[in-house]
Amino acid sequence: MPETYITRSSAIAARMLAGEMMVMNSMDSTFFTLNEVATAIWQAADGLTPLREIVRNQVCEQFDIDPAQAQTDAEQFVSELSQHGILLVSDQPLQDPHAPEER
Amino acid sequence: MSLLNEMSQKAFDMGVPISVHLDVTYRCNERCVHCYLDHEDHGEMTTTEIKNVLDQLAEAGVFFLTFSGGEVFLRRDFFEILEYARGLLFNVKIKTNAVMIHEAEAQRIRALGVDTIQISVYSHRPEVHDAITKLPGSFVRTIKAIRFMRDQGLKVTIANVLMTWNLHDSDGVQKLAAELGVHYTLDPTITPKMDGDTSILSFRIAGEELPEVFRNPALVPNMEEFCAPPKPVTSDDLEGYSCSAGHSFCYISPYGDVFPCVQFPLPTGNIREQKFMDIWNHSPELKEVRSIKAKDLTTCSSCSHVSSCTRCPGLAYMEGSMRGPSSADCEKSYYRTGIPTANMLRKSSQAPVASLVQIRPLAALA
To answer: Whose CA is closest to B20, among B56, B75, B63, B49?
Structure first.
């Protein structure tokens, strides 16, 4: 099975507020808030780490979630955000457009 | 309530500065007749200082960042600042007159993922626009820049400040915005200069002219609701606040001064001397601003408009008291609904009544 790589679009704005990550796409002004698990995936979306590895290291270990369920949920989350142009998805490693980390 | 409004309310309740307006310069290539700024450079922040401010704002939780001036593109380092801000993942809005924006600049703005560009257009008639900006040819340059940015897919908003010079041009500007395929927003507010000089208030449109604006369906789509009499005041209304100034929003000048709002020149600290969060958390002035609920307002607390008035605490402050009325907003409430405000009633009851018999010395009649 090919790996999935994810990175954040350069058109987004993001900031943490009260434990939730606010994300807005400047192209179409879509606005999301991410819960803790989604935020962990979001923060690890460096374009170089396969999604499977992100789920294993950032989600299953930190949040004690069943790996198969976590992988399914993560794929759905990635699919939804990629449809809004917030995450870029590829089967090849991607360059992270954001040098500094979001706060 | 939309998700965005929900998060904004959360920031307000928690006292998080979710939105900041940062003027990077007061210098400008236009000299608009109604402008409240002193365009001399009295020592604006350097590139390094502004980057440091941006780091602090990101740390403080600022999400929405507006760059304005003066004319932002007069700073040779503006794109460097913009790139840095986007690297910190702010949602960025730029306010500009756009006369220095060409195709290359528009492309770069798009590439940096700027959310919105707001551009001042005063009239659809070039001669009126140029007379207000005092920059010959500015209308043509501004409109050309709007086309460049629109073609890049940028979200552009034309801001139409209404004053005595262009009172009857709002329909024309709105049509122009529609032709250009950009958004339109109207603002009939002229504020005193930041040093308190009120001479430019003579450009404010007279209250009697406001109904023309408020009852124009092209400008106010929900006119019936907008112009409806105020609803009965509830105890919740009296526990409310005027706006987000100092609660979840603030303004930073090119010299590092922090104010509750761009229209609220109450100094609360300087970012060159203190950390932003020290000012935000500990400034006595900001604490005072945050403490004022509708029930604490000297005249407005007894006004029937208290729940729906656009009362600006900054304009009230410039009028004498941050707890007092803002006469410009009183006028808007009155001409919007036809119902006088408590401030208007108070003033009319205090007005001296002329004696029926007027006796003047004969010399004065000569």
So the answer is: B63
